[in-house]
Amino acid sequence: MPPVLAQAPTVQTQAPNAPDQEPAFAQQTRAPLPENPAAVETEVVASDLPQLWALEFLPDNRMLVTAKAGALHIISEDGKVSAPVEGVPAVDSEGQGGLLDVALAPDFESSGLIFFSFSEPREGGNGTSVAKARLVMNDDGGASLEDMEVIFQQMPTYDGTKHFGSRLVFGTDGSLFVTVGERSDVEPRVQAQDLGSGLGKIFRIDQNGDPLPDNPFVDVEGALPEIWSLGHRNMQSAALDGQGRLWAVEHGPKGGDELNRPEPGTNYGWPEVTYGIDYSGKPIGEGITQDAETTQPVYYWDPVIAPSGMAYYEGDEFPQWQGAFLVGGLVAQSIVVLHLNDKDQVETEEWVPLQARVRDVKVGPDGAVYAVTEDAERGTSEIVRITNAS
């Protein structure tokens, strides 16, 4: 017998792309709406920005943002944009590439170190790389990067324009999780299952780019020691929960976006096991959604939300969101709010519509939620502040 799906109203009312696929357990998809969804107010903090990819709050409440074309900027609390930060390396911004995520080192206030990911131009193509540098503030409100160093390169290099990932998340022990994609095309994407390839993986490295000695594949012959988990498609959302555990949301095909709690050494199936279908309408591989050797997603979407950016809510502005995940939706054009129960299952799901593609989500020092939205056709972005209206 298939699982009994929730009969309560759900935020997603469109028909699935793969109507014959059944979830593995109840509420693995289309969880009910909460009884009292949040009422919100929005205001644009900054507009007419270049197309952004990520936002990080600095200790003085200013915002450090990455622009897809290859620039870092600092934005003041009143929305003024600095000149580009000097010292950013060249990026390959074709297609889905560019300057991607940015994260402050856990000891940023003393070290000044930032870490950022980008699609690095290389001989024979490109790939996702991670660099670190000291962010040195200038008297005019701008900044420059000093001692910039590329510490990690996703390999192999591939000549393509899709599925670079990526998000950077520091663990509670100071380790750095790096999420990447599998480069999309049929030939390279199968390497998501190959422990000797860096495609379709989550990596766990130290702040010098080296693998951690307790990573799951350190002693496996032929495996990349930086790998934390495998079988991923394209992860543009990741965050720690209140217990310090990593969660990630990855883009599925036509249907099949997944929320996972990636655990060490775990295989999440792509491209052999997945929900959703190919963009052509055909099954992915053999069309399998469950397999004993792979781990089921905690939750999946069909149709997709197209996830990008993710935050775990802890703050005073939205008591009803305490402990919820906030996920940016590019196709959903909303912030997708996921409330989990004590079994790590999605209990309810609500959307905060913003009428624009949501590229990143952060909880501000004031407890408000900040969303980076984008108009990909115009190549512009806004930063929207979301507060409680109830």
Describe this structure in words.
The protein is mostly beta strands and 390 residues long. It has a single domain, classed as TolB, C-terminal domain (Neuraminidase, 6 Propeller), CATH 2.120.10.30. Helices cover 2% and strands 39% of the residues. The protein is built from 2 helices and 23 strands. The chain has a 4-stranded antiparallel β-sheet with strand order 1-23-22-21, with no helix packed on it. The chain has a 4-stranded antiparallel β-sheet with strand order 5-6-7-8. Strands 9-10-11-12 form a 4-stranded antiparallel β-sheet, with no helix packed on it. A hairpin with a 5-residue loop joins strand 21 and strand 22 (369-375). It is globular and about 60 Å long. The model is unreliable at 1-6 (pLDDT under 50).
Could you give a short description of this structure?
The protein has 390 residues and is mainly beta.
Radius of gyration: 20 Å
**Overall pLDDT:** 96
Identify low-pLDDT runs: 1-6
Alpha plus pi helix count = 2
- The number of domains: 1
Intertermini distance: 42 Å
The level of helicity is under 10%
CATH architecture verdict: 6 Propeller
Strand content: 35-45%
Q: Tell me about the biggest sheet?
A: 4 strands, antiparallel
The CATH homologous superfamily is named TolB, C-terminal domain
Strand order of the largest sheet: 1-23-22-21
Say what the CATH topology is.
Neuraminidase
| Helix/strand order | EEEEEHEEEEEHEEEEEEEEEEEEE
